[in-house]
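Expect chain and fold; see below:
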Amino acid sequence: MEYAEFVDHVRADGVLLADTADGNIDADVPSCPDWQVRDLVAHVAQVYEHKIECTRLGRVPDPWPPEWAQANEPVPWFRDAHARLLEMFEHNDATSPSATWWPADQTVGFWARRMAQETAVHRVDAELARRAPTPVDAALATDGVDEVLHLMLAGDWSDDTDDAMTGQRIAIDTGGRTWQVVLDREAVTVTDGDGQGNARVSGAPSDVLLWMWGRATESDVEVSGDPEAPRLMRLRLLKATQ
């Protein structure tokens, strides 16, 4: 997906999130235990403030977080932070420098992608507190699956080993793309493309993405093969996406 597309999704899902939260601020969020909608909205507003500062300063802001006068009115604060985040994206482009947590990509483009995904998933959270959620855009959700697998799940897990992970292979198939995940005791490897595996998880892009983020269950996706392999992967995903 292109930079402008990510920004458009931040804009559209942010408006939906705020509109859904407005008037429902004290409702519990079933997908985020111990959170009410006010906590959800304040969380996303704070995330937006952080990305604005990462770009303005050219470094990670420290100390963080500060106190905000708007925090007692989370929906107006969210709308204001959302507008300023969009201004930041509009005044920059995908190659503009910004401090990020991904060493290989220190650009505003990284945040455009990350905030599009952040806003979409939390928009679903807000809707779950009020009504059945609308699906995440298929192209955005497919990109979100790629982001979760490559940027959050894959890599060195030697500081949190799992003896149950012994080389299980899981194919993730959605949106016309397939990824192969290999679970080892100290690492997770993700490659693009199909391959022989212990299990396969497939479904509509939104369903697969939300399953990965713990906003959907296995009944919302199609699981074939050994059900233990996707269960182990989900346990890793829960830690990776906390």
Summary: The chain has two domains: 3-134, 140-240.
